[in-house]
């Protein structure tokens, strides 16, 4: 019975033997338990018990299974094991190679390393090939897993080279293949070396299939051969075999003639014939020479012949660019090669002696024209026609009539053609154009110049766009003429739209300015505290060009506007503003060069005038009676003191006021002197608050909207000729752009 059951064991898995033993077939984990064997007679029954523990069988797997590894590479074998946890104290792993146990410590200077369940082999050699077993043991069972390591390498070199079937032009070569090292031989390479022309240089002769061990070799005459064989498998090439015995073939007449026959000439009245010489193994015998034959094509004449040893022949005094029939044949002491083929070549070229005729120009648009011409006759090319070259240059501008220094431009059209397109021309200009033919020798004469004019085009964008005066609902813009008008300007298109910090933008409003001399415009009806983008485009009868843009923010409700006071300043002038300034008000002072066209100022700062209370002190004090009396008393006392000092000095002769003053100067008196006689200036030497950032680049902070037009002359004339307000403050700053990060009274940001 089993465990607490009283029923006898009766399934087919249990077998009760006559000797009293119980056999359990196909043991399972659930067979564990207590078994009782009962014996009974008429008197009673007795039992004996035995406890059975069933454990999981130990399992091992080696990975990778049967790896194929290149010689000198590395391999890592890992033994993965699974055993019953009750047997962990008795579990042991070991490695064997071809049945012999490997020691646990590393071997061969660390090339083979054992670390419990891993086996690492670096720089694998052919001797490492074999069957590796991982053996797992417990107190109850033993498990084994194996993996065969296959080492791959290039084949061993072939051996035992033999020559047979000797003929004048052939011989049979046989060999024994070396070990393929687990990668079958795919082919065999037969190489040869000859000791007459290039001794020591091995060259490939032919190839044989990988399973062949013999080959019939085709040979050239007059060569002393020796051979060797190289085997090739999936890993690479073997080392060459040892060379065979030498085999010399008898001489014979050449089997082929030179190839790549061509004519090269650098002078008009000569012809240089060249060809590729025969290789040494193609000579077939001693005394190699070349028989060169030539005659003028289309002329009934005998062939001219000459024997040469080098691979070129030069003929002189030939007609210019005439076709010739040419043959080159190889000859040695045993005979001549086969009949050579005829090659056509031309004698030396000369530059063309005629210019294209009938040159005409078809204007496509303001920057593109199409040129036509009649090609020169074939006999006037005097060489191989390479193509035509078109040259053109601008002679004057149709806008101002100014003549231009000729700057030639060139465009090449390859091949035999009679037209070409000339792009990139300047609109509204007069040009001259010529055409010439060219060949391998050089350029021919130019055709007579053809004069053509390009029509008006659209102008370039205006040179600049600046924001001048601005208010809460208006702004004044100023712009410059385009650098290239490309025609007569008909006016400008002024556009603007709202671009507040949102993804949505307002509609574009257009203003057409028909007076081309108008270079400023005042926009009104704008929204306050709103960011706008302005566009100005210049126009001709052909249309309008690209716009120049500027962005700005109008002032908020209740903000003060701005006024401009400006004038021309000479380098040494000082200037006081002609208009009265407001007390307690910030003013931006800027000094710029005449005809200012960029964003750089020489000097720029913010000046704050004194307040009314401060000014009132000086306005009222000079009219007070007590102040006048005090000043008179001080004057009388001073005069009295001076008189006393003068008298005492004349009497004593030893007391000198001046010497005493020189020896002991009074700092306070010196200060009073400087204050009385010093030059008056409203500017403060220390940096003033709110200095405006230089207009060099984008101005992110709120800044003055003054631009170059504010201070320019000419069409924007806002300078006076009687001096400049800016000049009064220029002495305290060094020349150059002034940058500061303070705020200013202006609230309109400018973006370059």
UniProtKB/TrEMBL annotation:
Pfam families: Bravo_FIGEY, fn3, I-set, Ig_3. One of its GO terms (biological process) is axon guidance. Residues 738-752 have a biased composition (Polar residues). One of its GO terms (cellular component) is plasma membrane. It is a single-pass type I membrane protein. Its main location: membrane. It is found in: Membrane. The chain crosses the membrane at residues 626-647. Residues 157-252, 257-350, 355-457, 458-558 form the Fibronectin type-III domain. Residues 58-145 form the Ig-like domain. This is NCHL1 protein.
């Amino acid at each position: 019975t089993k465990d607490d059951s009283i029923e006898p064991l009766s399934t087919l898995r249990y077998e009760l033997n006559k000797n009293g033993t119980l056999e359990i077939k196909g043991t399972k984990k659930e067979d564990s338990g207590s078994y009782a064997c009962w014996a009974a007679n008429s008197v009673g029954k007795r039992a004996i018990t035995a406890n059975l523990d069933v454990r999981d069988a130990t399992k091992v797997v080696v990975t990778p299974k049967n790896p194929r590894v290149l010689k000198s590479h590395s391999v890592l074998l890992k033994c993965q094991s699974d055993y019953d946890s009750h047997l962990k104290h008795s579990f042991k792993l070991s490695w064997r190679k071809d049945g012999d146990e490997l020691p646990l410590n590393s071997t061969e200077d660390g090339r083979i390393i054992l670390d419990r369940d891993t086996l690492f082999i670096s720089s694998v050699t052919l001797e490492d090939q074999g069957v590796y077993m991982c053996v797992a043991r417990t107190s109850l069972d033993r498990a084994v897993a194996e993996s065969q390591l296959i080492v791959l390498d290039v084949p061993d070199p072939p051996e035992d080279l033999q020559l047979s079937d000797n003929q004048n032009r052939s011989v049979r070569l046989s060999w024994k293949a070396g070990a393929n090292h687990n990668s079958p031989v795919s082919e065999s390479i037969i190489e040869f070396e000859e000791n007459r022309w290039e001794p020591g240089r091995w060259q490939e002769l032919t190839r044989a299939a990988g399973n062949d061990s013999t080959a019939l070799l085709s040979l050239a005459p007059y060569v002393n051969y020796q051979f060797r064989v190289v085997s090739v498998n999936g890993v690479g090439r073997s080392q060459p075999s040892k060379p065979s015995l030498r085999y010399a073939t008898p001489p014979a007449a050449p089997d082929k003639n030179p190839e790549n026959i061509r004519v090269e000439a650098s002078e008009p009245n000569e012809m240089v014939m060249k060809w590729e010489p025969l290789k040494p193994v193609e000579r077939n015998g001693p005394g190699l020479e070349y028989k060169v034959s030539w005659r003028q094509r289309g002329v009934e004449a005998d062939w001219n012949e000459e024997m040469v040893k080098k691979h070129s022949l030069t003929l002189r005094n030939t007609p210019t660019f005439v076709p010739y029939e040419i043959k080159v044949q190889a000859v040695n002491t045993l005979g001549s090669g086969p009949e050579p083929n005829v090659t056509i070549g031309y004698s030396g070229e000369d530059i063309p002696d005629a210019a294209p005729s009938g040159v005409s120009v078809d204007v496509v648009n303001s920057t593109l024209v199409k040129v036509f011409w009649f090609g020169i006759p074939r006999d006037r090319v005097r060489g191989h026609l390479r193509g035509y070259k078109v040259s053109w240059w601008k002679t004057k501008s149709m806008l101002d009539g100014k003549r231009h220094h000729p700057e030639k431009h060139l465009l090449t059209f390859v091949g035999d053609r009679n037209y070409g397109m000339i792009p990139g021309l300047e609109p509204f200009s007069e040009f001259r154009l010529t055409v010439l033919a060219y060949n391998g020798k050089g350029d021919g004469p130019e055709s007579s110049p053809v004069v053509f004019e390009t029509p008006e085009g659209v102008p370039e964008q205006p040179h600049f766009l600046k924001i001048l005066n601005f208010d809460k609902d208006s702004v004044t813009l100023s712009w410059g003429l385009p650098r290239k008008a490309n025609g007569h300007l008909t006016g400008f298109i002024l556009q603007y739209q709202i671009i507040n910090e949102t993804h949505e933008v307002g509609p574009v409003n257009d203003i057409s300015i028909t007076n081309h001399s108008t270079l400023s415009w005042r926009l009104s009806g704008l929204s306050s505290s709103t960011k706008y983008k302005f566009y100005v485009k210049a126009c001709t009868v052909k249309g309008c060009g690209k716009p120049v843009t500027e962005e700005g923010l109008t002032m908020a409700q209740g903000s003060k506007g701005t006024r401009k006071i400006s004038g021309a300043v000479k380098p040494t002038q000082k200037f006081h503003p002609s208009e009265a300034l407001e007390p307690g008000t910030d003013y931006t002072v800027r000094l710029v060069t005449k005809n200012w066209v960029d964003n750089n100022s020489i000097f720029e700062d913010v000046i704050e005038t004194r307040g009314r209370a401060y000014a009132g002190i000086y306005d009222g004090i000079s009219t007070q009676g007590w102040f006048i009396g005090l000043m008179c008393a001080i004057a009388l006392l001073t005069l009295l003191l001076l008189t006393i000092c003068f008298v005492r000095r004349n009497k004593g002769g030893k007391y000198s006021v001046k010497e005493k003053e020189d020896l002991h100067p009074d700092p306070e008196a010196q200060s009073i002197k400087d204050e009385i006689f010093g030059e008056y200036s409203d500017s403060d030497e220390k940096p003033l608050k709110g200095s405006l950032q230089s207009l060099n680049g984008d101005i992110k902070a709120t800044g003055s909207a003054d631009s170059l037009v504010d201070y320019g002359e000419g069409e924007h004339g806002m300078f006076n000729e009687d001096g400049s307000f800016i000049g009064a403050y220029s002495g305290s700053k060094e020349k150059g752009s002034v940058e500061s990060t303070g705020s200013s009274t202006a609230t309109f940001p400018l973006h370059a």
